[in-house]
Amino acid sequence: MYMSQPPRPRTSSTIPPILQQTSRLDSSDNPEIMSCEEEENVVIVVQEKGVIFKNGWRVPLIRLRFNDVCDDGSRVILGSGLNLHDVLVDAVVGVLDALYTPDTAPDNVRSVTLIIRNMDGVAYTTGMDIDDDHKEIHFSTEYIAGVHERSKGKQDKQEILGVIRHEMVHCFQYNAFGGANGGLIEGIADWVRYKAGFRPPHWHRGEGDQWDNGYERTAYFLLWLEEQYGPETVPRINGWMKKRRYSDKLFIDLFNEKPEELFKRYKKWCEEHSEEEVCGADQDSPAGEKEDPSEPSSPKNEEENNEDNNSYVEVSNPSPEDWQVSEAKLVARDRLNKLAYDGTGSFKRFINSFEGLIEVLDPKMSEKERRLLLVTALQGNPLTWLDNIDPDDELEYPEIKTILEANTSVSYKS
Ligand SMILES: [Zn+2]
Fold this sequence. Notes:
alpha/beta; Neutral Protease, domain 2; 2 domains; four-stranded antiparallel sheet; four-stranded mixed sheet; 17 helices; disordered N terminus; binds zinc ion; Uncharacterised_BSP
């Protein structure tokens, strides 16, 4: 599927039209200040020279795209009763609030586009090919239609809010220059989701056998760490990854203990404390509950208010490992689609990225498929050169790679 289309050339014509128009609001020399009551919190929205600040947080350009509004999943989202403007703005503010202070929040994210489309998996987040500071969240209509069917509509809101909050974390979190432990990255995303109150019914504390199993398994471990080391724990973990290459030394630096040892203590603590005891306390103070008036009642309240709650069975919910692999593969596929080599940069860097992505996508990929992907990624001089020396597509993948490597070091040395 990912080989069906050659990479698009990086020209201005591939920039979505809406991106080409950079002023989204009427600029005003004087900041326009609006405030409104949102439960007991006063929300301050400041518009300054076209940039929106909400409660001091800079909100980048947010865009929304439905690939097909008639798709079952699109109709679930459109019919959910959620105000998507509020959901998206609250997701940005909620993520920044959970991980940063206004002084430490990253300001590189220029736009976030939520793309609701038919695809496999649940969702993934990636940068656009023109600029990684423009983020894209891809959300599967097939997945949300499935949730709707299995839960008879009862989990729609919670899942939409939860998936968007999780993916929004990926737009703003640090990842040690892309080399962070994947389980930790996914754990932080679900930790933010949990704190916002968007916990699905199948999540349970104490599951997993390694600290970096990812998703909610690592999120519960992070919640425990937070209990032990204070509310700044996860922001500190995230902050550590801003300017460092990843290693488990992170945990020694911050907690003076290896993650495996911390995890052992966490598991022991889980055995000694029942989940009801802990979750009862959690329900009282999820950070996001107060900020989102469109949020549905918590799972606990739903149980109390809804006798039919037990009818929700997440029958085909993939295990966290499957989700993790799935999300990582979706991202790898997206990046491979966007990866191109036109001879102007370092071939070594290109081929390292290329093979790294294949390793994530499918380590057992045949050489025939690798060859096709490599040729598809070539543009300009390297492609012309390959056409000349191998007009009948006879060279194998390793040969093309070796010859290309030798040739580029002479002809395209950067
Ligand atoms: Zn994720």
